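User: Can you help me understand a structure? I only have the sequence.
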Amino acid sequence: MQKRLVDRFGRVHDYLRISITDRCNLRCVYCMPEEGMEFEPEEHLLTFDEIAETVRVLAGLGVRKLRLTGGEPLVRKNVEELVARLGAIPGIEDIALTTNGIFFASKAERLRAAGLTRINISLDSLREDRFRLITRGGDIRRVLAAIEAAYRVGLDPIKLNVVLMKGINDDEIDDFLKMTFDTNVQVRFIEYMPIGHSDDGWKARYLPLTTVLERAEANGWHAEQSGTVYGNGPSQNYKLAGAVGGFGLIHPVSDHFCQTCNRLRLTADGNIKPCLYWSDEFNVRRYIGDDAALADLFFRALDIKPENHEMAQVLAGESQSHSPTVRRMSQIGG
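Assistant: Let's start by predicting it. Here is the structure, written out as tokens:
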């Protein structure tokens, strides 16, 4: 029987997040600086052939679910071709996409026809002017068109990613919760994480997600835990009484979800990251074409995967057992 990707803590890994580019058409304040980012030359990025070969090997080790990320994955040409190729690999059952939505509406039908099953769209504000500030130039109308397009082509569920930031968009919690009453979306509030931040500036914007439940209670909206929403995410899911949609809380800092982690990450330049937060990486490129060696590399990555990422220690100003990554979120793929 083929070995499965199980780490030393007994966590079974059946989910791979694949960053296909570190480039993005936006410059969201929590993801990358406004200027000065150095992007990988195109020849340093994994080709579609290399990605497909890597996934083929991992499918033989039990990987069933994939998510394409970036940067912004839709800035890379012919993404639908990659979706189709990955979907044709025996064992792959689910292919999702995380996108800022700007280019999605024009590509929705082709991506769906190629085999895309689910979508997460970043939407950190419902206010046009504030959205433009957070994204440093984004047009919210194109994101709303992306949500409509996702409905039109039958993607389900549709998840909206909201990075909650104190003093920036926390006064919109009520608005996002209200959205779930009439719209069949899953709003996912995400804690601001210290990924790629060399200073403590992020702490000033950090807000624990208990705030969301407090806002629901203050409005008289009864929130019940709603069990699992289809997908690979670590969110705690809720539904307001009478609502069509729901919301989830993803709080890696205040209440980390590492004990149930089932995911590995492959960066656009070909590095396996066993943990989002730590600096450990293993480059796959020279092993592609040797199935046994490539599989062994993933097992070696799992062997050093820590029990948890210790982000809470950062918030508390305590020491950590590993070295945090210096990569920005756009360079990792989330």
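Now, to help you interpret it: The first strand starts at residue 15 and ends at 19. The chain is about 30% helix and 15% strand. Let me know which part you'd like to focus on.
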